[in-house]
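We read letters as residues; the fold follows as tokens. Both lines appear below.
***
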Amino acid sequence: MKKIYVPIVLLTVLLVTSCTKETLTLPEEQTEFKYLYLGHTYESPSSIDHRLLGYLDREVYDHFWLGGDMCAETTQDFSTVQYMDNLFELSSPATHWALGNHDIRNGNVNWITDKTGRPTFYTESFNGICLLVLNTNFAQGGTYDTTSVNAQYDMIQNVCDTLLNVSHLVLLSHHVSWGSVPGIDSALTTANASYSFLKWRLAPSQNFSAAIYPLLQQVKSRGINVINVAGDYGQNETEYYEMSNDGIHFIGSGITSNIPYNEQFPTHGEPDKILIFEHDTDTQELTWRFDFL
């Protein structure tokens, strides 16, 4: 990961500012928006599934939300990151990428952050939505990056403690770490890999259900809708949805390209789906659907 020499307190302030500042005024002529979510899209070490190329239309979709594992070896060659930039305009405020393990396992994460102009976890506010883009890769190799885990937790906590004047809090991640949340245990078997063990906080050491879920309950209690979206799907199920007993939403979406490696998975040969969000800012309704490719 690219080293960012910013004091951790200042970094946290920068990361949470976007969702705590006053929401920007929307253009009067637009009240309906569409956001395209794509996860687990790799077809080769350096390309996404070719079927998706026809969907990357800014005239149709106002935002691209990327759920990670975009190419099989995204940072193996700089040309692959350039390819991603050409497709998605990575520095655009309307493109948000929650990195997957295939995106970072070759190192060179600075190639991505240089293109996006953002760290690997951050907040953004638009259209009455507070978006949390999260990094679930801080335990690669079995050793936690303590500084980054704690900084990300502080960001999430600060957002959840202060969030007001929005209709939705949306959390984007790659790995599926919610399986230990009561009522969401189906995620343990439907995701490509269950990351319920993942620590979202250190000292004390806590997973998602202990560290993050109580913060989301706090936000929901203020009347703000909370939606979690993860992209590590496609090999066991192409779509996932559950709602917790507290009314918090959990969505998974990913595809399984027609490549030899994927022949071992139960979804191989079945129709793939993409996830589309539709947002009406007049009614503050954010809905979603899974469409066949």
Q: What stands out?
A: The CA atoms of residues 199 and 205 lie 6 Å apart. Helices lie at 8-20, 78-88, 101-104, 109-116, 146-162, 187-190, 208-211, 213-220.
